[in-house]
Amino acid sequence: MSHRSESQTGSHVRATLAGTTVTVHVQGRFDFNCHPGFRHACASFGRVREYVVDLGTTEYLDSSALGMLLVLREEAGAEHVRVVNCQPAVRRILEIANFQSLFTIE
Amino acid sequence: MSGLQPSSTTTAATFPDDREAATSAAATAVVEAELRALRTQGQQARAILADAIRTLGDSFVAMQADTTAQRSIMDSLLNSLSDTKGGLGRSEDSAVTIRQFVDDTGGVLRQFTDMLATVSAQSMKTVYRIDDMAVQLDEVFKLVASINEISQETFILAVNATIEAAHAGHAGRTFAVIASNVRDLSQRTKKFNDQIGAQIGRAQSTINEVRRIVAEMASRDLNVALTGKERVQSMLPSLEAFRATAADSVANASVVGERIATSTSAAVTALQFEDMMSQLIGSMVKRAERIGAAASGGPPPSQMGGGEGFSPGEREVRQASAGDVLSASDPVHQLDMSPGDVELF
Predict the structure, then answer these.
(1) 3-state DSSP call for residue A104?
(2) CB–CB of A32 and B219 under 8 A?
(3) Which residues of chain A are within 8 Å of residue B222 when distances are taken between CB atoms?
(4) Any residues with CB less than 8 A from the CB of B103 and at least 6 apart, and which?
(5) What is the rounded CA–CA span in Å between residue A27 and residue A59?
(6) Where are the alpha helices (DSSP H) in chain B?
(7) Of A33, B69, B140, B312, which one is least surrounded by beta carbons within 10 A?
(8) Which B-chain residues 108-147 have CB contacts (< 8 A) with chain A?
(9) Is the Cβ pair A98, B110 closer than 8 Å?
(10) Cβ <8 Å between B113 and A71
């Protein structure tokens, strides 16, 4: 099962379901324009237990991406959200924003 | 000039030759003139020495005062650089230490990024709600469109009924009136519907405007803010390192200042050599006078020149020691400048 959406700035948000885990991939710029796709991707499988946000192909984050991650954390529960495959630039932003104390970052 | 009255008359009598006596008197005059010059120069040397020593002494005393002032400045600097807050009533002191500043700035930066993230999350939640509202308004818009269809169909129905009533002729007259009323109603419905549609359109554009504003609030480029935070954060340890280095350096400078104070006070002590030098010069003049007296065979120098320039005390001492064995009348036995050993004659 998967869901895919494209934003007007060319970013792709793709979600796949495996068991009770939804993995959300954000490709390109993770910014405000991704919000409908990201929200939809997270909600498209109904109630799931775990969320994995894969930022392996994400080049850039703005503050709305931090906001989206925080809203997901609030809705799913802190222990059910993991952020994985961060590139150095992305990881730097997450760490400066102190997200390592809020999320499991891999 | 009293030296020119030859006291050598008593001794001159022993010379059988007058020319020999005249030569001896001339030699005595030369010796006495030289002795006077020697005494004057000795006094000049003592005056120059005393003057130089006084100036040196004054400047060393001033240096001591400056060193003390410098040490108290160093101490207060060291206090403000020190990372201990207690002990000096610093709690009621409004002065902020560098360590406090580093801690406070770190705290402010943490609050700043937390706030940034919180505002972004709240903005995104607002955006999600606005999106939901827009979807709901779209639904209302669809319902309005459905009502429009109904009123359109009602209108056509009324038009058809009017046509049918006309076909019925006189019998359909009443029906024609009803059909006309129905057509009016459908038109009024359409008019209201259009107004509702226009209102919804305005609400939608208002919502889009709100979404745009919130989006602007939510989507900030983090690089500038976070790079700034990173820079300040990396600056804080170097500031702390600077504080530590500065504290060490000031402490070292304080130690050096103490050493300067010790050296200066040693120098002030050493300046007592003036006394010894002065005494030595006095003694040298005295010896020269004795040599002169011995050479001319006249009386000891104390009776000779009246000792102009020497204080009465010195003259007394000179008289007391007149005729002493030379080595026994050395005024300064001391060979070093260690304090407390100065022997005044």
Answers:
(1) strand
(2) yes
(3) 61-63, 66, 93, 96-97
(4) none
(5) 7
(6) 9-12, 18-81, 98-167, 173-218, 222-270, 273-296, 312-321
(7) B312
(8) 110, 113-114, 116-125, 127-128, 131
(9) yes
(10) no
**Which of the 8 DSSP states describes residue A97?**
T
Count of domains observed in chain A: 1
- Give me the interface pTM, i.e. the ipTM: 0.89
Kindly give the confidence (pLDDT) of every residue in chain B, 345 residues in length, as a single tens digit, with 9 standing for 90 and above: 444 444 444 444 455 678 887 887 888 888 888 888 888 888 888 888 889 888 888 888 888 888 888 888 888 888 777 755 444 444 445 456 677 777 888 888 888 888 888 999 999 999 999 999 999 999 999 999 999 999 999 999 999 999 999 998 898 899 999 999 999 999 999 999 999 999 999 999 999 999 999 988 888 887 777 777 778 878 878 888 888 888 888 888 888 888 888 888 888 888 888 888 888 888 888 888 888 778 766 655 554 444 444 444 444 444 444 444 444 455 555 555 454 444 444
Domain that holds residue A76: 4-105
**Nearest CB neighbour to B121, from listed A31, A39, A67:** A67
Q: Is B149 exposed, middle or buried (0-12, 13-18, 19+ CB in 10 A)?
A: exposed
Distance to chain A for B244, nearest Cα, Å: 26
- Chain A hits for B117, Cβ within 8 Å: 63, 66-67, 70, 97-99
CA distance linking residue B333 with residue B345, whole number of Å: 11
Q: Which residue reads 């984050």 in tokens? A: A61
Structure tokens at A48: 């799931």
CATH at A70: 3.30.750.24
User: Dihedral (C-alpha) B196, B201, B203, B208: value to the nearest 10 degrees?
Assistant: 170
**Cα–Cα distance, B202 to B195 (Å, whole number):** 11
